[in-house]
Amino acid sequence: MSLFSFEKPGYAETHYKFKLPWSLLYRPFPEIIIDAPFQVIPGRKLTLLIAVRDADKFPAEILSLTAEIKDEHGTVRHFEQKLSIHVNRLLDFFPVELPALPAGKYRIDPKLSIRAGKKEKTITRWNLPGLKPAPLLVQILAENPPLAPGFIAGEMHCHTHYSSDPVEFGAPPKVLQQAAADVGLDFVLTTDHAYDFAFEAVDYMKPAAPEKRFRELQKEIEKLPAHPRLIAGLEVSAGNAKKENIHLLAFNPPHYLPGLGDSGRFWFHNQPAFSVPEILAQSGAVCFAAHPKVPIGKLERLIFRRGEWNPEDLSLKSPNPVRGLQFWNGSLDRGFERGKAWWIEELEKGNRLLPIGGNDAHGDFNDTTGISLPLFSLKYSRNHVFGRVRTVVRNFGFNKTDCLYLTNGPALWWEHSKTGLTFFARSTADYGKIKSIHLFAQTEPGAKEKTVHTVSPENTFESEIEFPLREFMYARAECLTEQGLLALTSAAFPD
């Protein structure tokens, strides 16, 4: 992500001034954010994460952490722990484990006592200038998230500390793995910007050997425990048919893929280095269109030459076509609606593309903060949180006829049966009872998809629906819970 980004905010980098003498965001103090996973599965304790950035420039000591923990019934707990942590590096994450909490939803207001030089100060949640503190909102689950038998759930779009530039930073793989275990993920695909590998972490403008840095990330991941599995991928800036920059996700490529494009380091000189077909040809990996229909502002088009994905960019007749569309990008916004509509249009044309979901999280575990207007203001949202939108698969083949599903709560999948197809829906008390299941299908080649069946179960967490798939070109399903949580499946085909 770069300045004026069409993507979501990430952790805010407030010390970069573009060599200017001033910035309303600048403070001679490390950036500090207290974070936490948005949910915790049974058997895991809630761990707060103290993220500290730029302490190499501004060393400090974290003296203690206190927190007020309020549950949904109004009961308040208090926590206090002395720390005495000396911070003096570019980026660090420090875990603080809280005592076990009963299942339920919690509002947590944490504070840090900090000493820098001879001065002591208290930080409530973060020390980001002009941004009011917001509480951590955490759900301790009573049950593990529902999961289709034989499937694994993962995060398909997130960033490590290798995605660092003048406006953001990510989290180390070790921290991502711990967070994945906390929220109930089986795998994490890291998708750092290809252009960030091409520059040093300390000096954003100093060129580096990207192949070497990508291999360093792979080695860092290889040293981690086997589960949850971390996989090094890339988010590559590539040129669409109009020679505009669009983003491509590469799943576990064997080598680094170049893509400087819209890195923001060249301002008006942001011609794509390679086209999408050229990247696909050299990738040696399964690739997906990243947030293909997120609206793009005029400044982004002008300064960074950003565009959006179009049908010709999918390279569907190439030896390695784009395998799917990552249109669920952390929130159910306009980009989601436009992306899903495009996916359906391609299905109607007979193009078998997979739906993919991810969060585009830059270490954001509970909410997101980032640059709103460079040098002037920051922004905040509850979107794009690590692990909230899950892609659930049987394997990593990503075959176009595979069943997979996307969800921020319930499980929803299909299996071939003697009568054609069976759709299964599962939820838990944590996510709410099943409110509705909609089945969509195409009745004949070239026809528009339509709703062919709707079920509104009463007081149930499980549902099964038989469907005569052989009568249709394809079928898919969407499920909604009483809490407004959504799951949707890939398309099933009769052959």
Number of DSSP strands? Answer: 27
Output the structural class.
mainly beta
- pLDDT average, as an integer? 93
Helix content: 10-25%
How many separate helices? 6
Uncertain segments: 1-9
Distance between the termini: 41 Å
Q: Sheet with the most strands?
A: 13 strands, mixed
- Shape annotation: globular
Strand content: 35-45%
Number of domains: 2
Radius of gyration equals 23 Å
Strand line-up of the largest beta sheet: 16-15-14-13-12-11-10-19-20-27-26-23-24
Written overview of the protein:
It is globular and about 75 Å long. The protein has a 13-stranded mixed beta sheet. Strands 2, 4, 5, 7, 8 and 9 form a 6-stranded mixed beta sheet that branches. The chain has a 3-stranded antiparallel beta sheet with strand order 1-3-6, with no helix packed on it. The protein has 2 domains: 31-393, no CATH class; 409-489, Immunoglobulin-like (Sandwich). The protein contains 6 helices and 27 strands. It is mainly beta and 495 residues long.
SSE blueprint:
Layout lengths: L30 E5 L3 E2 L6 E7 L6 E12 L4 E12 L3 E7 L6 E13 L2 E6 L11 E5 L11 E7 L14 H11 L3 E7 H4 L12 H13 L6 E11 L5 E7 L24 H8 L2 E5 L7 H7 L19 E6 L4 H15 L5 E5 L9 E6 L3 E5 L8 E4 L11 E3 L3 E7 L2 E7 L7 E9 L7 E6 L6 E6 L6 E8 L4 E4 L6
Parallel strand pairs: 2-9, 10-11, 11-12, 14-15, 15-16
Antiparallel strand pairs: 1-3, 3-6, 4-5, 4-7, 7-8, 7-9, 10-19, 12-13, 13-14, 17-18, 19-20, 20-27, 21-22, 22-25, 23-24, 23-26, 26-27
